Amino acid sequence: MELAVETRGLSRSFGSFRAVDGIDLAVPAGSFYGFLGPNGAGKSTTIKCLTGLLRPDGGSMRILGIDPVADPVAVKKRVGVVPEDLALFDRLTGEETLLFVGQIHGLDVSTARARSRDLLTLMDLTAAGTTLVTDYSHGMRKKLSLAAALLPAPKLLFLDEPFEGIDAVASRQIKDLMQSFVSRGGTIFLTSHILEIVERLSTHIGVIARGKLVAQGPIGDLRTGNGGNGTLEEIFINLVGGETAPSTSLDWI
Fold first, then answer.
1. What end-to-end distance do the CA atoms of the chain give, in Å?
2. Model confidence, pTM
3. Cα separations (Å) of 41 from 35, 37, 48, 240?
4. How far is CA 152 from the centre of its chain?
5. Containing H/E element for 4?
């Protein structure tokens, strides 16, 4: 099985706190991989390691068959990233943002302009193309960030909470686009706390808790291990032990 993302013993600590603790990821090429975990479990740290924003303390990684530590530029040419904090330039317009991304990736101007027009149309941002990003709503910024990730035509997308804080219309547009990307042979590595969306979209699931990978595999296999049924939410709570929901009674409310 060809793997788009593979790690062995991947670890990352912050002082004495071990945020990612020796995980072995196996993300098949062409899959939609939902990476789940409670708050503070290590999801975003893992993505930052995989995308070169953080250097791991230990272990090894292969992204599309390439070692991102040994050849980070080769990996960055082939992947798109939508980070949780979006990291857009507020004083550029939407069009300028996409053209800048195209320039960074070495696209000729005509190709970058054509792709920018297509993406702005697809994201329903054409009218806002000449507007400064600082004036964009949160949902518009999410869609522009996704457009920037897609513009170089990557083989692999890393999406960190792409549905957080966006309305139903924007959510539908993003879901349709992601499904189209995977149907054309791309691979998506997604983190989200909206389990209903992850369940609807994902072919494979990984669950991390307290920095450790506690389950991984096709979503059907996880259901089999849960007695053959149950929602993803039920499977998730069983795997993490319900430890994120302390039992407390607020009688004064």
1. 54
2. 0.89
3. 11, 6, 14, 10
4. 17
5. strand 3-14
Render 137-162 in DSSP notation, one character per residue.
Answer: -HHHHHHHHHHHHHTT--SEEEEEST
Instruction: Go through the domains of the chain in sequence order and give each one's CATH number.
Output: 3-78+158-240 (3.40.50.300), 89-153 (no CATH)
- C-alpha span between 10 and 152 (Å, rounded): 28
The number of beta carbons lying within 10 Å of the beta carbon of residue 39 is: 7
**pLDDT, tens digit (0-9, with 9 covering 90-100), for 93-134:** 999 999 999 999 999 999 999 999 999 998 889 999 999 999
Angle between helices 138-150 and 109-122 (to 10 degrees): 140
Which residues 6+ apart lie within 8 Å of 151 measured at CB?
98, 101, 102, 105, 107, 112, 115, 116, 119
